[in-house]
Amino acid sequence: MFICNCNGVREREILEIALDATTPRQVFNRLGCEAQCCRCVPEIAQILRETKEAARQQKIGAARMQERVDERSVANY
Ligand code: FES
Fold this sequence. Notes:
two-stranded antiparallel ribbon; about 5% strand; rod-shaped; binds FE2/S2 (inorganic) cluster
């Protein structure tokens, strides 16, 4: 699905770099293009926020799982 029609940027391309970019401007820079009409900027910003939140939740989940493993290891020792 195209997110930025001016530059032909697809959602998949944004997702691939979303964890390394903080702003839509950085996304454009990483993809070698620049904002033109800026209609896509709010959606790019939302993709960045959602991707970072998903990564944060995944980290929390992994940390909780490790805590449970550690607790079980201590309990079984
Ligand atoms: S749709 Fe992205 S700059 Fe126009």
